[in-house]
Design brief:
The chain is α/β, with parallel strands linked by helices and about 325 residues long. It has one domain (about 15-335): TIM Barrel (Alpha-Beta Barrel), CATH 3.20.20.70. Helix content is about 35%, strand content about 15%. It has 11 helices and 10 strands. The chain has helices at about 15-25, 60-70, 130-150, 160-165, 180-185, 185-195, 220-235, 260-270, 285-290, 305, 310-320; strands spanning about 30-40, 50, 75-80, 110, 125, 150-155, 205-210, 240-245, 275-280, 300. The strands form 2 sheets. An 8-stranded parallel beta sheet has the order 2-1-3-6-7-8-9-10. The chain has a two-stranded parallel ribbon with strand order 4-5. Helix 8 (about 260-270) links the parallel strand 8 (about 240-245) and strand 9 (about 275-280). The longest helix is centred in the middle third of the chain and has 21 residues, at about 130-150. The model has no long low-confidence stretch (mean pLDDT about 95). The protein binds flavin mononucleotide.
Length: about 325
Amino acid sequence: MSPMCQYSATDGFANDWHLVHYGSRAVGGSAAIIQEATAVCPEGRISYGDLGIWKDEHITKLSEIADFVSKNGAIPGIQLAHAGRKASCDLAWNGGGQLKEDRNSWTTVSASAIPFYEADNSPVELSKVQIEKIIDDFALAAQRAVKAGYKIIEIHAAHGYLIHQFLSPLTNKRNDEYGGTFENRIRLILKIVDAIALLMNEDHSLWVRISATDWTEGGWSVEESAKLTGLLKGRGVDVIDVSSGGNIPHVKIPVGKSYQVPFAEKIKKQTGIITGAVGLIDDAQQAEDILAKGQADLIFIGRELLRDAYFPLHAAQKLNNDIEWKNQYIRVKQSI
Ligand SMILES: Cc1cc2nc3c(=O)[nH]c(=O)nc-3n(C[C@H](O)[C@H](O)[C@H](O)COP(=O)(O)O)c2cc1C
């Protein structure tokens, strides 16, 4: 299951919505569940309804979710995130626009003081001390995630959120060691990975979601993504989850079935890392073909799993695969 924000938390705390939502997908046969973007600090939330993992008190409910998911056959994973300049937004169903001078708004931060939309409040450029704090926040969040029982830790470095803002030359105009050259722009993600890799043992897997391209001239590119992936692989990252876009508004993206798969394929071929494909993969045979052709090793399913929590059970049936159903539902396994 691909990570998908639910905008249903209060002060970062998970509740029964999250337990039932993720629990249902475990019962529905998902092999692994990457919980939605979970903020490493309050200002790192996209909206005030985002999940958080910036204090120990968050662990109790999260561990209930990880435990239920695990007991029902799925590997529990969590996506650790900081939204940077795309933080302080309204809930998606209220339009998702930036909130300004609202009781639910705050000042955003980024690599450079460039707003996402022109009309947005400008983010504040992070100082080096503030960057160090964010690296610590990611490490502490990972520590709490491990404590809560998550087995997959995915770092969100995609979709124009903070780490991606550092990666892309279009959003990172810094003159210090975090900006300019490729080596400088990737420094933040490497430091975060180094801090988190230390906390992993053989029970854990470290994944990174990237946007393979900004879809814009002069932006972050597939070539840079492959180069970065090679370095991440050498530093303990097990899986690269390949998405695209989200950093620059109004760009033309040729959205269609499997449209991001060629990026996953290229990165896999070039680096040999285990690669996940995502984006408009919503059919069993389509997913199977991607795996059979060796274009990717894992399939992330997003929206189809919101439409149908039992998609993996239905997909297995379509492909004539016999997969386990929960005992409570076994009487109806043959009759759908
Ligand atoms: C409601 C919703 C929330 C999402 N939230 C996240 C998120 O928290 N983190 C993330 O990396 N992607 C997020 N995404 C993107 C999905 O994980 C996925 O990459 C995207 O929907 C494309 O896959 P699909 O065509 O299978 O839906 C979200 C998508 C949706 C529809």
